[in-house]
Every structure is written in C-alpha cells, then in structure tokens.
UniProtKB/TrEMBL annotation:
Highest classification ranks of the organism: Bacteria, Pseudomonadati, Bacteroidota, Sphingobacteriia, Sphingobacteriales
Boundaries of every Peptidoglycan beta-N-acetylmuramidase NamZ N-terminal domain copy: 56-253
Entry protein name: Uncharacterized conserved protein YbbC, DUF1343 family
Signal peptide residues on this chain, from the entry's feature table: none
InterPro entries per the UniProt record, alphabetical: NamZ, NamZ_C, NamZ_N
Pfam families referenced in this protein's UniProt entry, alphabetically: NamZ_C, NamZ_N
GO MF term (any one): peptidoglycan beta-N-acetylmuramidase activity
Length: 410
C-alpha cells in the first residue's frame, strides 16, 4: 500500500508540469505540437486512485502501453488488481493474423486469464464479468469503420450496461482523425463483422469520442456508464506517430496512414500487401503484369497473413511506400484514384470485385464499403468527382451528429 502511494506521488510530481500546461488557459493559448501529446493511459495520476481497491477487467492488446511498458504489467507493478484481460482481434499480445479466431488462454507472463472477444465470444458474458468491479478499455484505434476495435468497444459497452459495470476509457489519438470521408452505411444488409455502425468509412473520432457517440445515438439498449481520461494537448488536426503497431499488418506509420484508402481493395482481385512485410503500402495482382513494372510475391506469414490473396504468385502494381502522406492530410479525403486506376487497368473486369456471397447476395467489397453504390459507380465509369458528390448528403448529416460527441477540436 505504501508503495502504491509513493508511486502515485512520484508520478504526480513528474507529470504535474505537463498537467499544468494543459489546464492553464495561458498555456493552452500557445501552439502545441505532437510531441506534447499525452495519452490517457500515460496520465496515471488521474486514474490510479480510481482503480485502487477495485477488481479490474482490462480490454487491451499490444498497443496498450504506459510509457513504453505494457499497461497490464505497469498497472500490476503499481498494485492494481487485474483479474481478467479481454483481447480483441489479433489477441492480447497482438500476434494473431487478421480474421483468425483467438481462443481463451492464460497469459504466460502474468498468469492472468485472457478472454478472447474475437470469434464466438464477441461480448463479455455475465459470468465473465461477475468478479469484475470496473472495466478499463485501452486500445489504439485507427479511425475506420472496418477496423474492428470499435465493434469490440460497442460489445464491451453493451455488456457493461447490462451488468451494471462502469467503463473507464483511457483515450488515445486517432492518427486518421483529420478525415471524415466515404459513403455512410445506412442499410442493415451491409452490416458484418467488419462494419456494424452507420458511419462513413472513416469517422474522425477517438475511442472516447466514439463511445460517447454509441451512447448518444442509442446503439445500446441502455446507456453505458462512462468515465474517460482524455488525451492532453491534442486536437484532430495533429499528426500522431503511433508508438506501437496497432495490429500485425499495420506495422509502419505509412501503413497506418494508407490503411483507410488501401483497405478498400480487400474483397477485390487486388492484393494490398498482405503476405509481405509491407502490408497496406503496396498494391498488385498477377493479371497486371503487362501494365506495371513494380512486382512482389505474397507468401504465407504466420501471425500476419497465412492465406493472402494471390499467395505464392508474383503480383504487379503500385508501390506506395514512399508516397507523400501529406497529400492525404491536405485533401482530407480517402484516395479513390488508386481504386479507379487499378479497376480500369485490370483485364478481367467482370471478376475485379469478386463474387457475391451466397448467403446474403452481398459481395465482400460491398460489406467493407458499407454500400453497393461505389462498386456500381466504378463499373459504370462514373467520375471521381461525381462519386464524391453522391457521398455528400450522408457525410454532412453524419458530421452534424459527430460534432455533438467530440472531446477535441477539429
């Protein structure tokens, strides 16, 4: 107990100047940079007293860190009682491939039970929460509807509401918060494991803001009791370099920034770099051999992509590893030009978007986009300008809704 209070005092003394800068109006009037950003998790003095004496359930993965150390390990060392860890897609340690079902286990390092929330058990059960006093959510997100952390967030919030548990969110910056773009999903037939929310493809919110959106827009039968530790010295316009990889296939900052645009290629005939150590920075397919000189070969990589599109075949296409990301930030838009270009270059256009699924008649591409309109527009040769114009009514409506839940300035 003495060690805990000594640690709290030391942390508070170390962090006090940063907190004063954030809370002082005169200091806030100064321009702050990304170097000044302090994640919710790193502001331990604000929440450690609240965790004291409680049995904590932590929703976490490898991106959950305090300083450069795992949040689980850090909190345990500070005397916090973590009784369970709940892991999202890719598992608690972040070493499972995309889409892989992750089972329950016991963490070899700490001996804490790890409950998988990706697979059959997407939502914590009443039994799993029985010995938990407080749930804590600390996961890095990248701001896309098809990035499944926000699905996990909703299921955790729903479970907390149903079982009268409070959820503490340790907020983190959204590296793609500057862009709110793409068609808004409005039809239930496009809901799937890679999209359950009526948002554009990129929503421009942090996890804390998205949690408020879920509560406020009645995604839950009853509201979840929330406590959010905000990111200090942050706004949505700031560039933010992630300190850890948020998932196995987002292994560079370039991939994180290109992901919203390149993930559109999943469900098409194009490989987006899965099966290489350059995922979401390259695009290609064997059929494009006569159109592009850049080439690579996807292979099975355990823990990243075991069955990539065009496995063991040479793909030809576009190398975006040195693409100037500032162009995306300046446009504040997803890049549609690459999708249109590769569709037009692909010799077998009938099979570019893949086959529709037999069970519901919806193609994997449409599930990711949240509508079948984009696919139909590209096939019909509709211009990029006209496609974007068709998105505007939905985007403007969503932006007005989104504004109600923001914790940080745009």
């Amino acid at each position: 107990m003495k060690l805990l209070f000594w640690s709290l005092g030391l942390i508070a003394a170390y962090c006090a100047p940063m907190f004063i800068k954030h809370l002082n109006p005169a200091a806030e009037s100064k321009i702050v940079s990304a170097a000044d950003i302090i994640t919710g998790a790193d502001q331990t003095a604000k929440y450690l007293p609240y965790l004291k004496g409680k049995r904590v359930g932590l929703v976490a993965n490898q991106s959950s860190i305090i300083g450069n150390k795992s949040s689980v390990d850090s909190l345990l060392s500070l005397g916090i009682k973590i009784v369970k860890v709940f892991g999202p897609e890719h598992g608690f340690r972040g070493n499972a491939s995309n889409g892989a079902v992750v089972g329950n286990e016991v963490d070899a390092k700490t001996g804490i039970p790890i409950i998988s929330l990706y697979g059959k058990n997407e939502k914590p059960t009443k039994e799993q929460l029985a010995d938990v006093d407080l749930m804590v959510f600390d996961i890095q997100d990248v701001g896309c509807r098809y990035y499944t952390n926000i699905n996990t967030l909703e299921y955790v919030m729903e479970a907390c509401a149903e079982n009268n548990k409070e959820l503490l969110i340790l907020d983190r910056p959204n590296p793609n918060a500057y862009v709110v773009d793409g068609p808004v999903m409005t039809d239930d037939k496009f809901k799937s494991a890679i999209g359950i929310h009526y948002t554009p493809m990129t929503h421009g919110m942090t996890i804390g803001e998205f949690a408020q959106y879920l509560n406020g827009e009645a995604y839950l039968k009853e509201k979840c009791k929330l406590k959010i530790i905000k990111v200090a010295n942050y706004n949505h316009e700031m560039s933010y370099v992630l300190p850890t990889n948020p998932s196995p296939n987002l292994n560079t900052q370039q991939a994180v920034m290109l992901f919203p645009s390149l993930c559109m290629f999943e469900g098409t005939a194009i490989n987006e770099g899965r099966g290489t150590y350059m995922p979401f920075t390259i695009l290609g397919a064997p059929a494009l051999k006569d159109k592009y000189s850049f080439s690579y070969k996807p292979v099975s990589i355990q823990g990243m992509s075991e069955r990539p599109n065009h496995k063991d075949s040479v793909c030809y296409g576009i190398d975006l590893r040195n693409y100037d990301i500032s162009k995306l930030r300046k446009s504040r838009q997803l890049n549609l030009a690459w999708l249109i270009e590769l569709y037009n270059a692909y010799p077998d256009k009938e099979h570019f978007f893949g086959k529709e699924r037999a069970n519901n008649g919806v193609s994997p591409f449409d599930l990711r986009i949240g509508t079948d309109q984009l696919r139909k527009q590209i096939i019909a040769g509709v211009s990029e300008a006209e496609i974007r114009k068709s998105w505007e009514p939905g985007l403007q409506k969503f932006k007005a809704i989104r504004k109600k839940y923001l914790l940080y300035a745009d």
